[in-house]
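Complex 239.
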Amino acid sequence: MTPTEADIEAVVEADDKGTRLYPEQVVDGLPTIYSFQSCPFCFKIRALLGSRGIAYADVEVEPMKKAELKWGDWNQVPVYVDVDGNAMDESNDILHYIDSKNGNLFPRAGHDPEQDRWMEFSNKVLGKSIVAVIYRTFGSSFRALEYVNGIENFSRKDKFVNKYLGGFVMKMVGRSRAKMFDQPPRENLKTQLDTMSGGFKGDFFGGEKPNGADFANYGILRSMQGLEGFDILEAHPEA
Ligand SMILES: N[C@@H](CCC(=O)N[C@@H](CS)C(=O)NCC(=O)O)C(=O)O
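Predicted structure with glutathione bound:
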């Protein structure tokens, strides 16, 4: 059977993982992240770029209207745009993409089941566990959204709406995340840190050097700095 043009198109699309070309979204000729300052998944990308010494531009997206993302059809951050304008979402895919173009220092998805497993853990378990802690109470939730007051190009109204409406919404999200786990949020986070440490092979998931799983989980945890539950991290012997 001869494949039709539509079949070929479908394969090409699946293979390039949704990368599309948006050269006009490259800021200052640098790789560009569209992010929220507070977003755990965005910290993964900053961690990898930082560790490779790659300068990048970081565009702050206003969380309610997300006007800064209107050029594409993405609805979540991070969105990464490389210097040629190749744009993509999904933090773990972005880590692989960046590494593949800058040193190729860890295995690609599908080539190291342990790395794949712990990268998935960063989104499916750790990311959800920290959200349950950070947005556990209204107070902790509003505090986590306090950062919006420091963003220059957000209007006064945006700041107010993001802190209070956003804080309220995130408190609800936190509650729904908490329901996914058997233990209460703080105890659960401690348990998940124990589980995570069980995957280290020496200093890192990657052994002597960090791999994709290290950047993925470190990024998630790094986003907690200064927020509710950071004390749990600081008290943990291995995390
Ligand atoms: N699976 C995605 C998750 C990204 C994600 O959940 N981003 C959140 C911010 S932390 C977001 O953009 N939320 C806004 C929304 O869903 O409207 C990834 O790993 O990149």
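The chain has two domains: 5-101, 113-235.
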